[in-house]
Amino acid sequence: MSGHSMSGSPETPRDLAHLGHVEMLTPRIEASLAFFTDVFGMTEAGREGQSVYLRGWDDYEFASLKLTEAPLPGLAHVAFRTWSREALARRVAVLEASGHGIGWTDGDMGHGPSYRAHGPDGHVFEIYFETRKYQAPDALKPALKNQAQRFPARGMSVRRLDHLNLLCSEVEPTRDFLRDQLGMRLTEAIVLDSGIWGGAWMTATNKTYDIAFTRDHSGRRGRFHHVTYAIDSREEILRAADIALEAGVPIETGPHKHAVQQTFFLYLEEPGGNRVEVANTGARLMLDPDWEPVIWTETERKKGQAWGLKTVESFHTRGTPP
Amino acid sequence: MSGHSMSGSPETPRDLAHLGHVEMLTPRIEASLAFFTDVFGMTEAGREGQSVYLRGWDDYEFASLKLTEAPLPGLAHVAFRTWSREALARRVAVLEASGHGIGWTDGDMGHGPSYRAHGPDGHVFEIYFETRKYQAPDALKPALKNQAQRFPARGMSVRRLDHLNLLCSEVEPTRDFLRDQLGMRLTEAIVLDSGIWGGAWMTATNKTYDIAFTRDHSGRRGRFHHVTYAIDSREEILRAADIALEAGVPIETGPHKHAVQQTFFLYLEEPGGNRVEVANTGARLMLDPDWEPVIWTETERKKGQAWGLKTVESFHTRGTPP
Amino acid sequence: MSGHSMSGSPETPRDLAHLGHVEMLTPRIEASLAFFTDVFGMTEAGREGQSVYLRGWDDYEFASLKLTEAPLPGLAHVAFRTWSREALARRVAVLEASGHGIGWTDGDMGHGPSYRAHGPDGHVFEIYFETRKYQAPDALKPALKNQAQRFPARGMSVRRLDHLNLLCSEVEPTRDFLRDQLGMRLTEAIVLDSGIWGGAWMTATNKTYDIAFTRDHSGRRGRFHHVTYAIDSREEILRAADIALEAGVPIETGPHKHAVQQTFFLYLEEPGGNRVEVANTGARLMLDPDWEPVIWTETERKKGQAWGLKTVESFHTRGTPP
Amino acid sequence: MSGHSMSGSPETPRDLAHLGHVEMLTPRIEASLAFFTDVFGMTEAGREGQSVYLRGWDDYEFASLKLTEAPLPGLAHVAFRTWSREALARRVAVLEASGHGIGWTDGDMGHGPSYRAHGPDGHVFEIYFETRKYQAPDALKPALKNQAQRFPARGMSVRRLDHLNLLCSEVEPTRDFLRDQLGMRLTEAIVLDSGIWGGAWMTATNKTYDIAFTRDHSGRRGRFHHVTYAIDSREEILRAADIALEAGVPIETGPHKHAVQQTFFLYLEEPGGNRVEVANTGARLMLDPDWEPVIWTETERKKGQAWGLKTVESFHTRGTPP
User: Fold this and answer.
1) Which of A190, B113, B140, B285 is the most buried (most CB within 10 A)?
2) ipTM for the assembly
3) Which phi and psi angles does B256 have, rounded to 5°?
């Protein structure tokens, strides 16, 4: 396997603009909502049916998290905004031809018509272009007009949706799907001694990853690992740990620095049972258009995280639904 | 004027990958070199003729700053790497057709053949695709293999080239050139009450700008305002101010936060007379593919910087060559 | 003048333990209260008569700020806790003998009997030993039992009262009073070319100052300059500036670093008209028991603050009452 | 046991001013010296015999670390500066009367005559008053005159000696010795279910501890656990971890936040085999003169550190000499 061939060819269409939103399921909607507004410091943008729409202060779209009541926690769908209407049409054509396609939706409170497809492991992916850009009400208007919403100064004050992490029964098919169907680029990966892929990190932007997916040791399909919101500085992530401690929110691991992607992380469990992360990801960027993916071996990963913290066992086994 | 129309159309070819390097002229090469290595914390990658090639620890290419001895300080050229060979060919065709083109070079110590063109104000722009990726010597090999070079822990330890700022006798022609010839997107601008543009900020990436240019109150053409290197955190930029103070490096203004683009800045004068900046720019990203540019009025800009600091007069008048 | 002789002799009784609280007057009690709770992030501990008692999350006593409604803003009194009952008795004896004494109070909501005295410029100083240590209600109990109160994660989340700054018609008499009557040590001072003192910074602790006082250019007596609350990091003070900007709180100057004492500062105007500061002061400590005070000359002070910011004119003239 | 009675009585003489220096033994003097200068960023102040004297940039005395070549790593002695000559005489009288005294020394390169005593576990304690204040050579003169030395901007750039940690076969006798003979105050402690003390943290200043000592699970006497240097911010301690990683310095545990004392820590092993720590300790101060010590139970300590990290086993067993 040549790492290089895993990257998108330079002339691969770059049709995805960015990760747009995530629909997360929770059996405890009120408790989850309180967590995301009071502890994460997000803002409620709207409600519809069994769902509440939430946003970070720097998310430019209407909402980045759709929280939906359901019997079990997990991921309902993940959505990417395309670069343009034409880009959307191109991706839909590819998805339809591939047999992964589910079909068009009429849109949602926060965006226009979208097209859905099943990923190889059963996760639901959505793409859309028409969106509703957030218009802050007077009480939330920012002082600087190049900002979507007033900085909340409440709880962790998360900035914006950063990335998503899935569990897959097999990593390779989802890697191929995201590369070939959606046009994403591989930046880092874990390849076990057996040759089986343990994890992959892919991007549609200059962030070093917008989505990651790792092997589900339980062998189950289509589960959710975590969603991550960005906070500006490592100092504020340490403060987020203080805030989690005070709020009684379980800290699974961190704050510490990942070896893979060098992300400074803090993993929490929200009351609905889903894993969520706050991280600062912006200092390191993926500017190189023909970046050769970094492949980590099993031996290298056994060294633990960047500064030596051992990866917690639950990280490989706990996903939602449980 | 519609701000919206200033943004690249969604289907504008996105052929530039990122700002690649800057060639800066200095009449005091030894003093400038000492500043960039000891105070900025950059690494010398090579020398050739009257030039020294320098790099930040996270620059993935061979060098991002070419420092060249010359009678007067200023900018020799600025270079962008394209997304692919095909993207380079497309841009060259456009530049040749436009009459801006100068012609091909044989390349340089750090990259392959490049094509040069004159911007409307006389600045020299270069584009290239073939590059030399940095291979750290043993003493500079990093502990984590997803990093170009060991973190230096010396002086300000700047991370990577971030952006460039030019002075223009008129802003509008350079704006049009970068949009139409090079395919960059406008994200923010200052438009004076007279309708004349005071400044523009444009990007080829998910950074909110890779280049800025402001009106030269002296009316001269083709001057250089500053080049900026990224540092990870605001805390480290405050520390950079301490380091500048200890080293006797003149601080022109800052640390403070710009209202435009919200960059946390520190402006210094390197010994050759050029203005240089350290800033942290990664927390705020430009993810929106159809972002409507933010237009600042003259009245708004008179409020000063984000937290009220007045813009120093020299910022509008001092450029290189002086 | 020998700077050295200005320091307390090594065997000077060290009877003051620390700055305990400040009673601040405001003509707009509701607006001031909203500022201190929502923007500063303080907690209301109690109310009595025209006063509200406020505290930072790490203040170990019941309250550190008594906010009292009055026709004009300003300082009602400043209080220091003594090291012991015996220390209190020793200081009271000295104050009574000196003729500065006012007399005993019956105590207040937050502390036991106290003794008050007029400083030479008319400010009211109070000393006490018996205090009420804060007992957090269940909703505010911290996760770690070596902390007074839960971290609020609201607004600036100020930590604790740090220091006080007075305006004096003459600096020297207050310096002598604090040294000779209260046993404080001088750490830094400004002495003008005329020999007149421009300001003095004195401490009763290992902090480099607990009180400062500067010359009132208006020539008035007994005015108040500002009170300062501590925040842990410079990063969080930058964030405090963002929060002030969003809340419409006037920023007088900063964030920047003082040359004197090297404090990283941000000066604000609370709605009642008083100047307040947030600063981080803990990194630099005064450990030396026979520290020779640092005397700054008029020329040195004209250089501005540490990184070159000019001291704003209002800093020398604005005080409360106005 | 009443925790309260463990604190110094309010009228206990406060004769110690602060921790002054530590003499550390190393079997690899050149490698240790390279570590402390290049990685810790300390400055060599002088050499004499088998010893090198080192200092942090904000240590006001000549040196805070005396590094001495010896067959085995460990602690040679720890020294506290007294508040005054009179305070020194008082403590010497007490030590002589107690039978712990060893006798006077003629002083050292960095200070005048000192008196030494054996602690109950065999550690050597030294007290002195006359000291040599650091005079920076021209190349190391700071820009601001209220600072001892230029900020080095090299490696971790540690600020100043912060505290010391000893291993004791029994904690209680050393606790009593430091309280009764030296006049230190207890601020926090671990008391096991058996009633045996597991650790104690004591202070002579407004820092929450200047010395700590924990039970040596090996049962040996007089061993050394670690010495700690202060760094200003948590952000810079994270950076210190990056620097340790790059330099190949073993990270034992951290960065993380202790529950006890809430210190943000990073533990390293210097080449001579001694454990060293960098921490930021200044934000939290011990201002209360009659602080009731916080006693942690065995159950509470089993929860691990503040954010849940389990205490590494080596922390209880590894000391020097090994």
Assistant:
1) B285
2) 0.95
3) -160, 175
